[in-house]
Write a structure and sequence with these properties.
Structural class: alpha+beta
Shape: elongated
Radius of gyration: 24 Å
Strand content: 15-25%
Number of domains: 2
Bound molecules: calcium ion
Largest sheet: 4 strands, antiparallel
Number of helices: 4
Length: about 180
């Protein structure tokens, strides 16, 4: 009778299949299942988001950007510590009330966080898990638009990205806040 035939069991289907095909299909499943984000990708994102939030908090608090200049700029947090000091409340010219806008963990051996100077009163830089600084693109001409990694981002004052495991900007493994 139509509709009463039971569907073929999976084992029966497997018996009919070419063994090579079964191995191939299993291999594909394994490859898909084992594919993970590169190690450190998740830990790289948290400081990037924290920097972005800190810039926005500063903007709300003081009504201006936490960095001087009239045209958009990209700050690298491993070499340019001026922005970090402002956001960490470690200077009192641009951050007169010394508010700590940026809260990120401390790193080690120029990786995975903030590296302080010996006297702990300033920082050497903020580093991603692979030892590079974060790129911070700032909208300093106040047009609410920034170009980051070759992408145009609208309605934004700040965007942050890590170069990822290959330490090159603009490649697929970059860890970005947008
Ligand atoms: Ca990259």
């Amino acid at each position: 009778m139509l509709g009463t035939a039971s569907p073929p069991e999976i084992c029966d289907v497997a018996k009919e299949m070419n063994p090579h095909l079964i191995v191939f299909v299993l291999a594909i499943f394994c490859l898909c299942g084992c594919r993970r984000e590169p190690l450190g990708t998740k830990t790289a994102l948290a400081p990037a988001v924290a920097i972005e939030s800190a810039v926005n908090y500063y903007l709300t608090e003081y009504g201006s950007m936490p960095y001087p200049g009239a045209s958009d700029a990209t700050i690298l947090t491993s070499t340019d510590t001026e922005l970090l000091h402002v956001l960490l409340g470690l200077e009192d010219e641009m951050n007169k009330r010394s508010i700590k806008f940026l809260i990120v963990r401390e790193g080690k051996e120029n990786r995975n966080g903030l590296i302080y100077t010996d006297d702990s009163r300033s920082v050497v830089g903020l580093f991603d898990p692979w030892g590079s600084g974060y790129n911070v693109r700032l909208d300093l001409d106040s047009d609410q638009k920034i170009d980051a990694r070759g992408e145009t981002l609208n309605n934004r004052r700040v965007a942050v990205w890590s170069n990822g495991p290959d330490r090159k900007s603009g490649t697929k493994d970059d860890v970005k806040t947008w």
